[in-house]
């Protein structure tokens, strides 16, 4: 018995669209599957949580314990994206300024929910234990080190680390050649 859903079980979940060769752990929590599009060659590991309007490209890996809180704003993961374990991506969050009440038990009129689409460009990577806040664009080819806070847009083909994350150097574009070679073999 596999720990991943079968192809038939995945179809029954009711995703907006579903590619080929998709592996999703049966221990993944999925809320609002009809708002989720998943590409080809995607793997989502144990104890991940997907909620809201989510688009996942091809050749994407979402490691164990990753949470994607997309709400209506949405989260878009491009091709060849990797999100390492225990990372969280928020496209929606409560306002913690103290000016408003917070949490889902409180009526909306007392809250200020902050929404902003999060986009991760192709070949971007988020290290373990990172947090991405609403409205952020992680450019193509960006690599973010472990335990970083992503609270602003990140420039393409750069490596970032820290809280909040700061650019430390360029990232190699060799992955583009490797992806092209891999795709020719498919």
Series of H and E elements: HEEEEEEEEEEEEEEEEEEEEH
Mean pLDDT: 97
- Structural shape: globular
Structural class designation: mainly beta
Instruction: Count the DSSP helices.
Output: 2
Low-confidence stretches: none
- Portion of residues in beta strands equals 35-45%
Q: How many strands?
A: 20
Radius of gyration: 17 Å
Span between termini: 28 Å
Task: Assign a percent range to the helix content.
Answer: 10-25%
Q: Largest beta sheet, briefly?
A: 10 strands, parallel
Describe it.
By secondary structure, the chain is mainly beta. It is built from two helices and 20 strands. It has helices at about 5-15, 175-185; strands spanning about 15-20, 20-25, 30, 35-40, 40-45, 50-55, 60, 65-75, 80-85, 90, 90-95, 115, 120, 125, 130, 135-140, 145, 150, 160, 165-170. The strands form three sheets. Strands 1, 3, 4, 6, 8, 10, 13, 15, 16 and 18 form a ten-stranded parallel β-sheet that branches. An eight-stranded mixed β-sheet has the order 2-5-7-9-14-17-19-20, with no helix packed on it. The chain is globular and about 55 Å long. The two termini are about 30 Å apart. The model has no long low-confidence stretch (mean pLDDT about 95).
What is this structure's SSE topology?
Elements: H1 7-13, E1 17-18, E2 22-24, E3 29-31, E4 36-38, E5 42-44, E6 49-56, E7 60-62, E8 67-77, E9 82-83, E10 88-90, E11 92-94, E12 113-115, E13 118-120, E14 125-126, E15 131-132, E16 137-138, E17 143-144, E18 149-150, E19 158-161, E20 166-170, H2 174-185
Parallel strand pairs: 1-4, 2-5, 3-6, 4-6, 5-7, 6-8, 7-9, 8-10, 8-13, 9-14, 10-15, 13-16, 14-17, 15-18, 17-19
Antiparallel strand pairs: 11-12, 19-20
